Amino acid sequence: MLKKSQSISINTIIIAAIALAVLVVLFVIFTGRFKIFSEDVDKTNVNCNDACVIGAYQSGSDSSGSCAGIKISIKGKECCCQPRQQ
Q1: Per-residue pLDDT tens for 6-21?
Q2: What are the domain boundaries of the chain?
């Protein structure tokens, strides 16, 4: 009497290997891109007012003490952003 054995077909193994290779390539691409992006952000010369305006606040200035608005940190520097008036 012949017994039927259940096993993974060769097609399933090949598809799994290709999928794993694609995932590895995508991982390498995206981790490399994020590193390049962070290096470019460090090279920019953004001041507090520009950073606050980009962040949808009305204006901003260097924070050297108390802040009546919202404090954010840009490249290790504290900025005080004023919310937009409604």
Answers
A1: 677 889 999 999 999 9
A2: 6-43, 46-86
